[in-house]
TrEMBL record:
Top-level lineage group: Bacteria
PANTHER family in alphabetical order: POSSIBLE SENSOR-TRANSDUCER PROTEIN BLAR, SLR0241 PROTEIN
The protein's name in its UniProt record: Peptidase M56 domain-containing protein
Residue ranges annotated for the Peptidase M56 domain, each copy included: 8-264
Length: 521
């Protein structure tokens, strides 16, 4: 949730910045309506759900749930969580703050709008009705404005007939009527809701102000398209007379003096219908390109039955957790899956192999999911351990807790690296890199004969170099690229890693409790 939300807000901010940069040139070249339509791009990105990448995750039918990692305690016992952890962690605090801010702004906006609407309509007089749109006169407004979604209203000042010439009144009224008929009033409400979602973002506030100007300019263009060029000056005079500077929160008003000069300049642009059509096509292409490029990705894991466990040489257990190579790390990993067969086979090289192909040093200590332990090459229950063996297991558990503490500290960095690898896999970059490596090896192989003399001069055998490159090429060809990509994406599952950490810590705490009870006997 946090990842998707942060990705969405960041991508939307980038698109808003992009629109702010190009809206003026677009207005000059293609007209105000096209510049207004540009705001669809960041809006669609904000509302776009994450795209799903489906990954099949192999689960062995013969294995029970794995013993995995959990939050690390101190050596003496479980760690007392900090205040931030008690409140749910930084992610929960950030999400809560965002929700509180968005909700407070939305509620305040609704209260302000309701109060302003009531003030405008309190002493108003209805003078006409055009379909479901009421036309009223009110002393609370200085210029015409349109507001309301279910109860649609056009409010006129009480001196409307005195201050405006007949032609100016008609054009001003047409402007507000156009706002209702084009859905601008409803769009203003939706735009405010989207602004609430980005209440903390200065770029969103700047974009909202620019959006409102582009809306008014587009409405001007719609009105001007229906009148002759001779009436443009009259329309500009109507705008100037309405510039009182006060409007309802969600209203489409004619009275914004801060943008008066820009709107008049905007009215001077009159692109051809062909150019406007080209502008709309350009917006569609921009959206079709920008939305997939900035999309958030979610990985859907589908568990499917797997075959036999990996070979003994593999350092990756069925849990997907990488096992370190040192004996101490092997002892502290607490990573042996729960298998029905706990047989141990001694190897000639001094190691032991557990069921499932897991290979450990003979002196290593490991833990099974049911709290049985491997000690001195034998699998035992905790109740079967001698005092010396219990001391040895206790030390191994404390080592595991220290290892878990280190893993917890490095977890954010590891998750970031895993997500980066998953992104590379999804984008095809990983596959392209593997293919490029193969091309480089084949090119090196082809060039060896031309530099054979130089290699011999440096004491190298060209044929040996060829054999090494051929071996690398064959080894790379044997790699299942699709499997590597699936594993890279699967490894980036933060929920799975967090669950592993929790489960392993619960096991460590449970086993220490059992050992304490046995020592007190």
């Amino acid at each position: 949730m946090i990842d998707w939300l942060s990705d969405t807000l960041l991508a939307t901010s980038l698109l808003m910045g992009f629109v702010l940069l190009i809206r003026e040139p677009v207005r000059r070249e293609f007209g105000p309506a096209v510049a207004y339509a540009l705001w669809l791009v960041p809006t669609l990105r904000l509302l776009m759900p994450p795209l799903t990448w489906t990954v099949e995750r192999a689960v062995s039918a013969s294995l029970a749930p794995a013993a995995t990692y959990s939050a690390p305690p101190s050596i003496a016992g479980p760690v007392v969580p900090s205040l931030v952890d008690q409140l749910g962690g930084w992610d929960v605090l950030a999400l809560s703050t965002w929700l509180v801010g968005a909700s407070a702004m939305l509620v305040c906006g609704a209260i302000v709008y309701r109060s302003q609407r009531r003030q405008v309509l309190r002493d108003s007089v209805q003078v006409a009705c055009l379909g479901d749109i009421r036309i009223v006169r009110s002393a609370a407004v200085r210029g015409p404005m349109a507001f309301g979604i279910l109860d649609r209203v056009i409010a006129l000042p009480v001196d409307f007939d005195d201050r405006y010439e007949p032609q100016e009144r008609r054009l001003a009224f047409d402007h507000e009527l156009s706002h209702h008929r084009s859905g601008d009033v409803l769009i203003n409400h939706l735009a405010f809701v989207l602004l609430c979602l980005q209440w903390f973002n200065p770029l969103a506030w700047l974009s909202h102000s620019a959006f409102r100007f582009d809306q008014e300019a587009a409405c001007d263009a719609r009105v001007l398209d229906k009148i002759s060029r001779l009436n443009r000056a009259t329309y500009a005079q109507a705008i100037a007379k309405a510039a009182s500077g006060r409007a309802l929160l969600f209203a489409a008003a004619l009275d914004r003096p801060s943008t008066l000069q820009k709107r008049v300049r905007s009215m001077l642009t009159s692109p051809s219908s062909r150019r406007r059509a080209a502008g709309k096509t350009l917006i569609a292409l921009t959206a079709a390109t920008a939305l997939p490029l900035t999309a958030s990705w979610a990985t859907l894991y589908v568990e499917v039955p797997a075959g036999a466990p990996p070979a003994a040489a593999s350092k990756v257990l069925q849990t997907g957790m990488r096992v370190p190579n040192t004996p101490r790390a092997l002892a502290s990993a607490a990573a042996v899956t729960a298998v029905d067969d706990k047989s141990v086979r001694e190897n000639q090289d001094g190691t032991v192999t557990l069921a499932g192909g897991v290979k450990l040093d003979k002196g290593s200590t490991a833990f099974f999911a049911n709290d049985d332990v491997l000690i001195n090459g034998k699998v035992k229950r905790l109740q079967e351990l001698s005092p010396a063996e219990r001391s040895q297991i206790r030390k191994a558990i404390l080592d595991s807790q220290r290892e878990l503490a280190r893993e917890r500290a490095e977890l954010p960095k590891e998750l970031a690296e895993l997500r980066q690898e998953a992104d590379r896999a999804r984008s095809g970059e990983l596959k392209r890199e593997l293919m490029q490596d193969q091309e480089d090896r084949r090119r090196d192989l082809a060039e060896i004969d031309s530099v054979a003399a130089e290699l011999r001069a440096h004491g190298e055998d060209p044929e040996k170099r060829k054999a090494e490159i051929l071996s690398a090429i064959r080894e790379a060809e044997s790699i299942d690229v699709d499997k590597e990509i699936r594993e890279a994406i699967e490894a980036a599952d933060p929920d799975k890693i967090a669950a592993e950490l929790r489960t392993a810590e619960e096991q460590m705490t449970r086993m220490l409790t059992t050992l304490d009870r046995l020592d007190r006997r």
